TrEMBL record:
The lineage of its organism: Bacteria, Pseudomonadati, Bacteroidota, Saprospiria, Saprospirales. This is Small ribosomal subunit protein uS11. Pfam families: Ribosomal_S11 (PF00411). Keywords: Ribonucleoprotein, Ribosomal protein, RNA-binding, rRNA-binding. PANTHER family: 40S RIBOSOMAL PROTEIN S14/30S RIBOSOMAL PROTEIN S11 (PTHR11759). It comes from Portibacter lacus. GO terms for biological process: translation.
């Protein structure tokens, strides 16, 4: 008879200021709220919020997911955050508004979308 060990919950220190990472792709949006050391306090995505298929890439789905993650962080004690947005998705602005509306003051917004300096090598010329 093997005993099942209960997993110990990870203790993360929550400061009043933190970081919010919004990853907005064409298919989904993922919001991670971290402390200043980069440890994740709460996270949410449009898929976790119950949206499926093309509904995941809508501003409304981003708003619901961001509000869900921000509420958990606000209850833990976070009051202000710097927001880093990455990707070309539809719900970038509405996610920032939802975080601000949930009680976390947005102090800075920075776009960290990767931009190619010269890009990939183009395909060879077509011969007919």
């Amino acid at each position: 008879m093997a005993k099942t060990k209960k997993a110990k919950k990870r203790n993360v220190r929550v400061d009043s200021a933190g970081l919010v990472y919004i990853q907005a792709s064409f298919n989904n949006i993922i919001i991670s709220i971290c402390n200043n050391q980069g440890q994740v306090i709460s996270w949410a995505s449009a898929g976790k919020a119950g949206f499926r298929g093309s509904k995941k890439n809508t501003p409304y789905a981003a708003q619901i997911a961001a509000a869900d993650a921000a509420q958990v962080a606000n209850d833990a004690g976070m009051r202000s955050a710097e927001v880093f947005v990455k990707g070309p998705g539809a719900g970038r602005e509405s996610a920032i508004r939802a975080i601000d509306g949930a009680g976390i003051k947005v102090t800075k917004i920075k776009d960290i979308t990767p931009i190619p300096h010269n890009g990939c090598r183009p395909p060879k010329k077509r011969r007919v």
